Amino acid sequence: MFNRNSPFHFLNNKPAMAVAALLAAEVVLFYAVPTKEYVPSPPALDTFVRSVGPWTMTSQIPIDDDSARILKADDTLTRNYKGPGNEELFVAFFKSQRAGVTPHSPKMCLPANGWAEESSRIISVNVPGEAAPIPVNRYIVAKNEDRRLVLYLFQSWHRATRYDTAAAMKR
Predict the structure, then answer these.
(1) What is the CA radius of gyration of the chain?
(2) Which of 4, 72, 121, 167 is most exposed by smallest CB count within 10 Å?
(3) How does pLDDT run across 73-119, given as a tens digit for each residue?
(4) CB-based burial of residue 168 (10 Å sphere; 0-12 exposed, 13-18 middle, 19+ buried)?
(5) Contacts 24+ apart (CB under 8 A), 117-126
(6) 8 Å CB contact between 123 and 139
């Protein structure tokens, strides 16, 4: 079938030909058979509690049009809370990650808006209802005289992860 000088000479062997046929069938099936994506229908983010422990919401800020256009999230929430300190909460929700619209890291958007990284590491945070602490990105940024602590993670429908594509790209 294939002469000895052919790069496909190994296919003269029946087991190798069977494996090659199986792999080719797998590739065809992978692209030909669509898979159904789980798309959650959670409540709107603005129904999130207005009090969290010692913090109470003081204001809710709509996301500006330019940021919304770039982010392309299905829902967002930006709130200020007052308690043992003044805190800002930002949450972005994406129904799907299949259409090329995916969450992106603060390590990409904050520097693009003039914030400089001072430090970055992974910490563990205890979350009610979770059996074990979850890994969270801890990121300190500064802009002029302003300094901020940013804690962020990526939550899928079945798990929380600290995986950060920007951090992975820096390595």
Answers:
(1) 24
(2) 4
(3) 889 999 999 999 888 888 888 887 666 656 677 888 888 889 999 99
(4) exposed
(5) 117/141, 118/142, 118/147, 120/167, 122/162, 123/151, 125/151
(6) no
Give the C-alpha separation, 18 to 87, whole Å: 61
Could you tell me which of 104, 123, 111, 122 has the C-alpha nearest to residue 148?
Answer: 111
Q: Which residues contact 1 (CB under 8 A, 6 or more apart)?
A: 11, 12
Distance in angstroms (rounded) separating the CA atoms of residues 154 and 160? 6
**Residue 111 contacts by C-beta under 8 Å, 6 or more apart in sequence?**
117, 141
pTM exceeding 0.85:
no
Which tokens is 120 given? 């970055």
Q: How far apart are CA 125 and CA 152, in angstroms?
A: 11
DSSP string, the chain: ---TTSTTGGGGSHHHHHHHHHHHHHHHHHHHS--PPP---PPPGGGS-SEETTEEEEEE-PPPHHHHHHH--SEEEEEEEESSSEEEEEEEE-S-SSSS-----HHHHHHHTT-EEEEEEEEEE--TT-SS-EEEEEEEEEETTEEEEEEE-EE-SS-EE---HHHHHH-
